[in-house]
User: Fold this.
Amino acid sequence: MLTQLFFSPLAPEEVVATLRASTLPPNADSWRDGFAVSLAQPFQGTIAADSFQLTRLEDNKPVRRTSPRPVAGYISAVASNRAGSQIVLSLRPAFMDILTNGVAWGLALFFLSIILVREWPDFRLGGLLYLLLPACFTALSYYRLRNEAKAYKQLFGPLLKLAEQA
Assistant:
């Protein structure tokens, strides 16, 4: 899971109102509006008083879809004397990424253990090449998740006047 913490000068109620104005309801698909993504409403999902679950709509597809990973967020008031709100965004990897990584690591460790048992006295480091494929799968999953977080940040940034916190 990738979590980012942001600060917005807007009050929590203003953040919720801004998100509601720029978000389509979850089942807003119809054949009439399926071919374009409005820049005023680039998200689809649900918004509560202090949390939200959104998916960004892709406009580079022939038909609008919600294929990117959903982002969960929590909104709270800033604890210090400053006005504003604190927003926590959380992205989870897709189920298929987790499954692919698990299978790849399991197979690699299985084959490596067979090599270790059969060739222990003469074991060479070449057997460790079995770990290269699952390491690549894991790096690719993280890279895709990080790029998705950047895409959400680019959409949320101007909308909510976000500043990243350490």
Q: What stands out?
A: Confidence is low (pLDDT under 50) at residues 62-66. The radius of gyration is 21 Å. The beta strands are 2-8, 23-24, 43-47, 51-56, 71-77, 85-91, 163-164. The chain has two domains: 2-93+147-164, 95-138.
